[in-house]
Specification:
Blueprint lengths: L1 E6 L5 E6 L8 E5 L6 H8 L7 E3 L1 E2 L2 E2 L5 H6 L1 E5 L10 H5 L1 H5 L4 H14 L16 H13 L5 E5 L7 H18 L2 E6 L2 H7 L2 E6 L3 E6 L1 H6 L4 H7 L3 H5 L15 E3 L4 H7 L7 E4 L5 E5 L21 E2 L5 H10 L4 E5 L5 E6 H13 L10
Parallel strand pairs: 3-9, 3-10, 7-8, 8-9, 12-13, 15-16
Antiparallel strand pairs: 1-2, 1-4, 5-6, 10-11, 13-14, 16-17
Bound molecules: adenosine-5'-triphosphate (ATP).
């Protein structure tokens, strides 16, 4: 987008000389307060709204010189509440664009079924009507419909705003998975900065008046907000959220203060060290049961119901420093429990060790463009 402006007939400047390069095969998120011009920007890309000034090039081609129909068919479009055709079944909703492109019914429906699988919809829902689906399921249908003709570009306008936080997280994870599999160029509008930081490869923060405040990868946004407006928009816990971009894998784990539920008196004694007041007890399957003071543990038959809760463990290899810190903060002992992918304990780490890792992380720049999820 090169110096793109949209002035509505009443004189409102919705977008003001916006210039930015939207990366290919990545997710670019537009975020900002209500009325800052996000939707107008998105709709200028597929010319549902015509720009007043400036140029928008896709792969070097000026969108204003493309026939509108060709342009729109090369872009999937997803909106809040999915915007499904209420009188059509789910499968026919998804098959809409392929049918418009002249595919025969069988082929279009086969494609629709394949996409239902891709977006995590059970095939048994194919013959239902939109009103017979939950909000989250309808939103998945909206994504499947937008993907049906395999467009290289996907435009998404607050697609997940109308669903509850848990469903929303599921939809976000699904979108990231689809993006990894299909490599679409996605432009995504939201007013939720957490959503932007989670799914964006790059995030464009806009301010009222349709001006671009900052355009950067999420980690950079959290590290170096361009000005007070961006800093304010990012919210109070910017430092904590930035920890999502640093892996927990570098944390040194202690394996000594860990005993199995059937530990002998000798084992308990051998694993008790002066610097760790508690022992983590695991089941015979290696999963964590809870913390206990060594003198309260009955050798040979530790009672799991008398242990202190261990809190939610973090996965050492894949989680972030933020997850490890959260775990330590919520742990009654101040120690976080690390597990492997199989849920078995790999060690424990003290809050102060995590604090040291955080200090060095803040001194370094985040080297990942994506949050460690
Ligand atoms: N057809 C129109 N005529 C005049 N002004 C308009 C028109 N459509 C939008 N606007 C104005 O343009 C500005 C940008 O609107 P836009 O819908 O792009 O914002 P937004 O950032 O997407 O907002 P929201 O988060 O509330 O959806 C707003 O001030 C809005 O009132």
């Amino acid at each position: 987008m090169d110096s793109v402006t949209k002035r509505y007939p009443d004189g409102t400047v919705a977008v003001d000389r916006l210039s930015l390069d939207i990366p290919d095969r990545a997710i670019t998120v537009f975020v900002g307060p209500s009325g800052c011009g996000k939707t107008t920007t998105l709709r200028m890309i597929n010319r549902m709204i015509e720009p007043s000034e400036g140029t928008i090039l896709i792969d070097g081609k000026d969108v204003l010189k493309e026939p509108v129909n060709t342009l729109r068919r090369s872009m999937g479009y997803v909106i809040q509440n999915a915007g499904l055709f209420q009188h059509r079944t789910i499968i026919d909703n998804i098959a809409t664009v392929p049918r418009l492109l002249g595919w025969d019914k069988g082929r279009a429906r086969d494609r629709a079924r394949e996409l239902m699988g891709r977006v995590g919809l059970d095939p048994s829902l194919a013959k239902r009507y939109p009103y017979q689906l939950s909000g989250g399921q309808q939103q998945r249908v909206g994504v499947a419909r937008a993907l049906a003709a395999d467009p290289p570009v996907l435009l998404m306008d607050e697609p997940f705003s109308a669903v509850d936080p848990i469903v929303r997280k599921g939809l976000q994870d699904e979108l990231l998975r689809i993006q990894e599999e299909l490599g679409k160029t996605i432009v995504f509008v939201t007013h939720d900065i957490d959503e932007a930081v989670k799914i964006g490869t790059k995030v464009a923060v806009m301010r009222t008046g349709g001006r671009l405040a900052q355009f950067a990868p999420p980690a950079e946004l959290l590290t170096d907000p361009a000005d007070a407006f961006v800093e304010d928009f990012l919210g109070a816990d910017r430092g904590i959220r930035r920890l999502s971009f640093f892996p927990a894998a570098g944390l040194p784990l202690l394996t000594t203060p860990v005993v199995a539920v059937d530990a002998t008196a000798e084992q308990i004694a051998a694993r008790t060290t002066p610097d760790v007041p508690y022992l983590l007890v695991t089941g015979l399957d290696g999963r964590p049961l809870g913390w206990g003071e060594p003198r309260n543990l009955t050798a040979g038959r530790i009672d799991p119901t008398r242990l202190l809760a261990h809190g939610r463990p973090f996965e050492h290899a894949t989680d972030s420093l933020r997850a490890a810190l959260d775990c330590a903060v919520l742990s009654p002992t101040g120690w976080a429990v690390a597990v492997g992918a199989d849920g078995r304990v790999t060690g424990v780490v003290a809050q102060h060790t995590i604090a040291e890792a955080i200090r060095s992380a803040h001194a370094a720049r985040p080297d990942t463009e994506k949050a460690v999820r």
